[in-house]
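Please decode residue identities from the backbone states below.
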């Protein structure tokens, strides 16, 4: 009998059944619907990007990318981990309506304030961007987008991934309809797309909220904001921002040290590798509720679930990496002959999906067992190591140097997270020590 069974009684057996069941209620069935969620998002994002790239000037595409580069960390920080807390509360037996109303209160007020601050700081951040374009895109990508994401995450927390997929389909449909209208009736100007984008996200958010209200019986709320929400959610926001620093710090530094061509090669390679994280995200989405349910019994219980996910996670990461190794020569055929060196970049970075599979699972194990600040600390160490190596080595380095610093920092972060998880298992299991909080 596992520690999860001893502490959780029949809950441990129920969790094992769900993790091995390939039916619609088991991990296999949920992974299938989670795949639909991720594929819909991937296809819609790719279509929007490539169509807009054909319709608009390179300068406008660059402005759009710059605003998105500001919006992502703003959304990560201002959302205060509302999506994780939503999954955690529902998965651990809390009221769906209560969890949803607390999440929407934070998910509306926090990102709205974050977007307002970002808009106010536009003259400092991106002074050359038109004010209306900046404001509309910021509100779309921060406030409205986050509401639709919360609706999808509610499906994860309740293990109703089919509902999550249907919500994603509604949102994606609005997005693609706006793209079609802009392509057929628009003049190719960025302001026109900013208006269409804002309208599509607004309608998508309304449909997502209406779906949750009708199907889950949970209306949204703006009155459940509290200091508790901020205190509990802040570490998740800080962790999201620090994870993004691990991903992006080397690219601007390559440009800063006059390696623009190397930055282009590395950016293309790293961007392609990011597509390999999709099957890993599918596995995580499908198992979030199980992991947080186990986590309320301590780190050992969460680790028992994590161990059952490591085998498929490692297998997926290895298969994706092998696929990149084989398909890497296609890169210059798609991106252009000037990116022939990106073939080597992709092959060297092909180990990342395997590393990230273990890293994400160990990090989620800490989050599920209420040790999120330890995860934040580890991620900050990883970000600091990556930044320090880049500052030390990139001035005289190349894209190969950036690959080296990335792999070293990712391995170090994964090892640190694993050591922290094992440390908490030992601490909670030691005689007279059964602490479950960080």
């Amino acid at each position: 009998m596992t520690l999860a069974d001893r502490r959780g009684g029949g809950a441990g057996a129920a969790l094992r059944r769900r993790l091995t069941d390939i039916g619609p209620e088991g991990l296999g069935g949920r992974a299938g619907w989670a795949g639909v969620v991720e594929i819909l998002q991937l296809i819609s994002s790719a279509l929007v990007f490539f169509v807009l790239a054909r319709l608009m000037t390179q300068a406008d595409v660059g402005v759009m990318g710059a605003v998105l580069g500001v919006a992502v960390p703003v959304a990560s920080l201002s959302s205060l981990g509302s999506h994780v807390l939503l999954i955690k509360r529902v998965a651990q037996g809390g009221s769906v309506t209560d969890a949803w109303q607390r999440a929407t209160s934070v998910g509306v007020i926090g990102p709205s304030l974050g977007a307002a601050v970002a808009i106010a700081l536009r003259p400092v951040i991106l002074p050359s961007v038109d004010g209306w374009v900046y404001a509309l895109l910021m509100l779309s990508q921060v406030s409205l987008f986050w509401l639709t994401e919360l609706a999808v995450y509610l499906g994860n927390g309740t293990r109703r991934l089919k509902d999550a997929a249907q919500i994603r389909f509604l949102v994606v449909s609005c997005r693609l309809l706006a793209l079609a209208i802009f392509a057929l009736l628009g003049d190719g100007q960025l302001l026109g797309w900013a208006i269409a984008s804002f309208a599509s996200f607004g309608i998508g958010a309304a449909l997502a909220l209406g779906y949750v209200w009708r199907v889950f019986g949970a209306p949204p709320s703006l009155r459940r904001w509290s200091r508790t929400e901020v205190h509990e959610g802040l570490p998740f926001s800080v962790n999201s921002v620090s994870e993004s620093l691990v991903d992006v710090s080397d690219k601007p530094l390559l440009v800063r040290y006059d390696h623009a061509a190397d930055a282009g090669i590395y950016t293309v390679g790293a961007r392609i590798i990011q597509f390999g994280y999709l099957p890993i995200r599918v596995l995580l989405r499908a198992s979030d509720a199980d992991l947080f349910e186990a986590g309320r019994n301590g780190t050992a219980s969460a680790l028992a679930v994590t161990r059952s996910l490591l085998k498929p996670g490692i297998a997926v990461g290895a298969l994706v990496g092998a696929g990149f190794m084989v398909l890497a020569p296609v890169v210059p055929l798609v991106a252009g002959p000037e990116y022939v060196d990106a073939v080597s970049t992709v092959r060297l970075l092909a180990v990342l999906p395997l590393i990230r599979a273990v890293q994400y699972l160990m990090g989620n194990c800490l989050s599920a067992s209420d040790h999120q600040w330890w995860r934040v600390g580890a991620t900050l160490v990883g970000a600091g190591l990556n930044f320090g190596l880049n500052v030390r080595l990139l001035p005289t380095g190349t894209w190969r140097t950036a690959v080296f610093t990335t792999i070293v920092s990712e391995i170090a972060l994964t090892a640190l997270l694993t050591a922290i998880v094992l440390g908490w298992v030992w601490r909670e299991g030691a005689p007279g020590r059964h602490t479950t909080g960080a």
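Observation: The chain has 20 helices and no strands.
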